[in-house]
């Protein structure tokens, strides 16, 4: 029997199956024994580490280890006689496939959120355990209310029971902490700290605990490598209203250059010193701001028990970081030109090779990463590439593995990917027709494209939030009775997370959009079991001058450059303004990228950018 051909490999991504559903039953059985030993009726296992980050290091991936579910959001509740895995609509199918549904019941958050599930299922008198380092102050308040409504009690555990049964647990990450170049940062740490301390004075608080590693990295102009695909150093800082801050990072991880940079503006202490300093702030009666979205409940308890006042609210760094300065925007534009050229080379290769047959999703992922590597400047992919063929494209957060790898056959291939470069973070989705698409596919693609264009062309008054714009992307789909179950757009960092808050374009996006914010524009359509469509560019909020206007008006600058899929566009569904916008965009794509590609890629680009 001949050997199977070797699968291509990637530097930054793997295709192994991350979890094994057969391990769910024995692990949950072991956890139930441990809960009984600790006198608990149940335990909540969130998909979280102590920083509430989107990506968690391997040794903190408790939810994945226990239930098999590897999505970016979810909670499990394990009781003696039942267990639920509560996820949002993005992960309905994935959760069913990855866990053992005989033991764990996948539950849609939209139909039964975590607190309601607890209220309905926790037995009267039951002690429900939680790890206070893995839940926020507000989150614990909701859980406490739910447990009380069930006639039970919420109990903070000193030792996480999952850790007690987790054999061969990975070691914590120890990636080096490096300095981020000043010409890319655009502002030194001293200037940022001055602005943060002004905000603390205005808020009438004595100190800020920086619990979000993105905020830590941005404030001190440092980057790390403690989680996948995002250059984060996992650590904390305390910034007093006056005086020098303290950064809590393992000293052995800090390079000399980063140590000098931090040392110029603050002190460096080991992570174990955080508890001592928080207790000291509490003993001094300090009012300490905690980031309501990322700060662990345990931090508030330490401050309160020592006599201080924890103040859960907005971390002022979040908005500062979201509003990119001129250097960060210039870097993002350059990074997107480089990345766009890599995309064109990839799409040109795909157009030549896919019709021959024999390609798989893994081949596509590897080829695209290889094109980005050719830039010589790629530090990592900005997230695991989504390359979904056929029905896999209908899974918005699909991750190809050796087990799921599909052949790229006539139909649709959806590729959502991005790169991490020191000057910028990219994120782009293109949906590609393989062979002749159906009329239905062309209809759905064009409706998604119309929504994408509506966001791109939007103008809006100062103070407008993403929630107020979200419907623009959905209207062409709504008119035909369709929709999509994710937000239209998320914020994007500057050589930081590809998913950054607080800015977003979604029904939940209440933060006003301000100049300098980078967001994605990515409406979609998903026909379960058949195909999926998504189109994504990154956009920047900018001020628009309207002659004769009376209000401050904003719009979007598009910074992603790559052709749309002509074979999927139904021209009859577009109005003249939309056709003109597409033609103008393609003319810009040609002007910006033609000099960055050559040979077959340049010929493909020229054809792809012809007027409709």
From TrEMBL:
Sorted alphabetically, the keyword list is: Aminopeptidase, Hydrolase, Metal-binding, Protease
Residues in domain Peptidase M24 C-terminal?
Answer: 553-612
Q: Where is the composition biased (Polar residues)?
A: 11-22
- Residue limits of the Peptidase M24 domain? 333-543
Enumerate the GO terms in the molecular function aspect.
Answer: aminopeptidase activity
EC number, UniProt record:
3.4.11.-
Q: What is this protein called?
A: Aminopeptidase P family protein
Organism expressing this protein natively: Bosea massiliensis
């Amino acid at each position: 029997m001949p050997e199977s051909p070797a699968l291509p490999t990637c530097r930054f991504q793997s295709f192994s199956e991350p979890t094994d559903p057969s391990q769910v039953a024995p692990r949950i059985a072991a956890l139930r024994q441990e809960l009984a030993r600790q006198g608990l009726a149940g335990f909540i296992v969130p998909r979280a580490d102590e920083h509430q980050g989107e990506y968690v290091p391997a040794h903190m991936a408790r939810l994945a280890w226990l239930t098999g579910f590897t999505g970016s959001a979810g909670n499990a509740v394990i009781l003696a006689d039942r267990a639920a895995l509560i996820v949002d609509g993005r992960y309905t199918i994935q959760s069913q496939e990855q866990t053992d549904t005989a033991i764990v019941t996948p539950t849609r958050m939209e139909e039964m959120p975590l607190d309601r599930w607890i209220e309905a299922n926790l037995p009267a008198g039951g002690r429900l355990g939680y790890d206070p380092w893995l839940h926020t102050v507000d989150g614990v308040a909701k859980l406490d209310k739910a447990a009380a409504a069930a006639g039970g009690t919420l109990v903070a555990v000193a030792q996480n029971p999952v850790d007690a049964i987790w054999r061969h647990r990975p070691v914590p990450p120890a990636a080096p902490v490096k300095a981020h170049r000043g010409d890319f940062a655009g502002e030194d740490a001293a200037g940022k700290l001055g602005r943060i301390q002004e905000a603390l004075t205005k808020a009438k608080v004595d100190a800020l605990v920086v619990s979000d590693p993105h905020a830590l990295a941005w404030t001190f102009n440092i980057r790390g490598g403690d989680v996948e695909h995002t250059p984060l150093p996992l650590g904390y800082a305390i910034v007093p209203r006056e005086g020098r801050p303290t950064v809590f990072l393992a000293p052995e991880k800090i390079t000399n250059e980063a140590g000098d940079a931090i040392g110029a503006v603050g002190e460096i202490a080991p992570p174990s010193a955080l508890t001592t300093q928080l207790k000291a702030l509490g003993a001094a009666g300090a009012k300490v701001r905690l980031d309501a979205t990322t700060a662990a409940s345990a931090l508030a308890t330490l401050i309160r028990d020592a006599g201080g006042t924890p103040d859960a609210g907005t971390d002022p760094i979040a908005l500062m970081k979201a509003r990119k300065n001129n250097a960060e925007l210039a870097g993002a534009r350059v990074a997107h030109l480089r990345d766009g050229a890599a995309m064109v080379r990839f799409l040109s290769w795909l157009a030549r090779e896919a019709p021959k047959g024999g390609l798989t999703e893994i081949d596509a992922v590897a080829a695209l990463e290889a094109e980005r590597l050719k830039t010589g400047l790629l530090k990592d992919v900005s997230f695991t590439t989504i390359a979904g063929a056929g029905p896999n494209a209908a899974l918005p957060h699909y991750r190809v593995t050796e087990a799921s790898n599909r052949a790229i056959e006539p139909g649709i291939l959806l590729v959502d990917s991005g790169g991490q470069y020191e000057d910028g973070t990219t994120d782009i989705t293109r949906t590609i027709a393989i062979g002749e698409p159906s009329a239905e596919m062309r209809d759905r693609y064009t409706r998604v494209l119309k929504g994408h264009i509506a966001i791109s062309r939007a103008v809006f008054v100062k103070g407008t939030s993403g929630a107020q714009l979200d419907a623009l992307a959905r209207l062409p789909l709504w008119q035909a009775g369709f929709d999509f179950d994710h937000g239209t757009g998320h914020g994007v960092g500057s050589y930081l997370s590809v998913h950054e808050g607080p800015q977003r374009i979604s029904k939940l996006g209440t933060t006003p959009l301000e100049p300098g914010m980078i967001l994605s524009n990515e409406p979609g359509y998903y026909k379960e079991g058949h195909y999926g469509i998504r189109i994504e560019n990154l956009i920047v909020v900018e001020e628009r001058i309207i002659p004769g206007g009376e209000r401050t008006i904003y719009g979007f600058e598009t910074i992603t450059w790559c052709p749309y899929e002509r074979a999927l566009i139904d021209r009859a569904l577009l109005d003249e303004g939309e056709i003109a916008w597409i033609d103008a965009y393609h003319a810009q794509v040609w002007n910006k990228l033609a000099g960055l590609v050559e040979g077959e890629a340049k010929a493909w680009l020229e054809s792809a950018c012809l007027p409709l």
